[in-house]
Write a structure and sequence with these properties.
The chain is an all-alpha fold. It has 18 helices and no strands.
Length: 437
């Protein structure tokens, strides 16, 4: 396929993806689900699990293997840009407000599901073909444990704003714990990939590179950018050259963490956190967010769906294994986070909400298992199992939250007015991240 043919194919694919995502999104809204959940489902529907099963010829013509070489890098760009936006709206004081509760919930939400996942990894490795022969027992246990303990931080931010929980104890603790959980899960993934390559020194290099990047970005670059941000505030507008400069920093950050063996999303998110707040962050979000979430991010969900073959779960035994993964992930994460929140003085209502919100795995789960599949750590059948877990746990979050907690917030926990300046110590989720509900 020539470059011109690839371009023509890509444009047609993009049009189909956008139409299907919007169609599924309309149905999802009736169920109270945000658009991003619909895109997860749409990706699976466009893949071999439905389109490839019902109309294999159409699927083969729409998504030929060679076109994936174009779809993949563009999807990664969309993912990095989205995480940059999430970093732009992330407030460090979110963690400071209830640090002890956030840390306790994070630790409990990692340890319990990790142990359950490691146990299932041990069983799968010895009694099923869900892991390739090359994957060692340790790699199987750590990878599945990491997959089970991760929380979809971007999805969590969306749901918290969708439920109008920004600035409440529930939202504050959940966001802080989710950020810590995801950072730990990436470190675990680095260990698995380094072990898979047969060089534990690589894991140390990956983690050290990630820590070094965070230190440079937040302790050196952030103060310099804050000084520049004050000049932007005086000028009253972010210039085009300033906007491009910020995009360049995002791209270089994503490139570096990808190059050291972590993932581009990590570098993009940290660079977003390092950006000056105020006019700079608002201008960046206003310019980047609409195109990213509407045009580029759906490509990632579709790419994940094209790798998902639910038909590979072709026996009652494999579906039983999928059920075990789902139950272990839900109970391990939800119950552990609920208990940890209660133990640190959080009310039962808020603790139930935190446990429910932390169970949403969505985007981050798809990222980590895509890496596992691409590197050959897991089989397509286990990939399909984990996709099911990611979709179901994300779909469950909103309705279970309504049942356990209810849609009404306490009157004392008023959400800040978006048009008012934020008081010190007040946390919010950026308003613009709610546009696709």
């Amino acid at each position: 396929m020539s470059n011109v043919e690839l371009a023509v194919q890509f444009l047609f694919q993009l049009g189909v993806i956008l139409v299907v995502c919007q169609a599924v999104g309309r149905l999802a809204r009736f169920a109270g689900q945000p658009q991003v959940v619909a895109e997860m489902i749409a990706g699976v529907l466009l893949g071999p699990s439905l389109l490839g099963l019902v109309w294999p010829d159409v699927a083969a013509r729409l998504f030929p293997a060679e076109s994936m070489k174009t779809l993949f890098p563009v999807s990664q760009l969309g993912l990095a840009a989205y995480m940059f936006v999430v970093g732009l709206e992330f407030r460090v004081d979110i963690v400071r407000q209830r640090l002890h509760s956030a840390v306790a919930v994070s630790v409990a939400g990692m340890v319990a599901p990790f142990l359950l996942g490691a146990g299932l990894g041990w069983w799968f490795h010895g009694h099923t073909a869900l892991f390739p022969p090359r994957t060692s027992l340790m790699e199987a246990c750590v990878f599945l444990g990491a997959s089970m303990c991760i929380t979809a931080f971007p999805m969590l931010a969306r749901i918290i704003h969708f439920k109008k929980l920004a600035g409440t104890t529930m939202g504050t603790v959940a966001l802080g714990a989710g950020a810590i959980d995801d950072a730990a899960a990436w470190c675990l993934l680095a260990v698995v990939l380094a072990s898979f390559d047969g060089d534990f020194r690589q894991a140390a290099t990956n983690i050290a590179g990630g820590i070094g990047y965070v230190v440079v970005a937040l302790l050196i670059l952030r103060p310099l950018l804050a000084r520049w941000g004050r000049t932007v505030e005086k000028a009253g507008t972010l210039s085009d050259s300033g906007f491009v400069g910020c995009l360049a920093l995002m791209v270089f950050g994503a490139w570096f963490t990808d190059a050291v063996g972590l993932h581009a999303v990590f570098g993009a998110f940290v660079m977003g956190v390092a950006m000056p707040r105020g006019l700079v962050s608002r201008s960046l979000i206003e310019r980047i967010q609409p195109l990213t979430v509407a045009l580029l991010l759906p490509l990632f969900f579709t790419f994940s769906g094209l790798n998902t073959q639910i038909g590979l779960l072709d026996s009652a035994y494999l579906w039983l294994m999928a059920g075990l993964v789902l139950v272990a992930s839900v109970l391990g994460k939800g119950v552990a986070c609920w208990l940890a929140a209660r133990a640190t003085g959080v009310s039962n209502r808020d603790a139930l909400g935190i446990g429910t919100l932390m169970n949403a795995r969505g985007l981050m789960e798809l990222i980590i298992i895509n890496i596992g599949l691409q590197r050959g750590v897991i089989t397509p059948a286990l990939f399909a199992t984990l996709v099911i877990m990611a979709v179901v746990t994300t779909l469950m979050a909103s309705p279970i939250f309504e049942v356990l907690v209810g849609g009404e917030r306490r009157s004392s926990e008023r959400e800040p007015d978006w048009d008012e300046p934020l008081a010190p110590g007040t946390s919010t989720v950026a308003k613009c991240l709610n546009d696709r509900q």
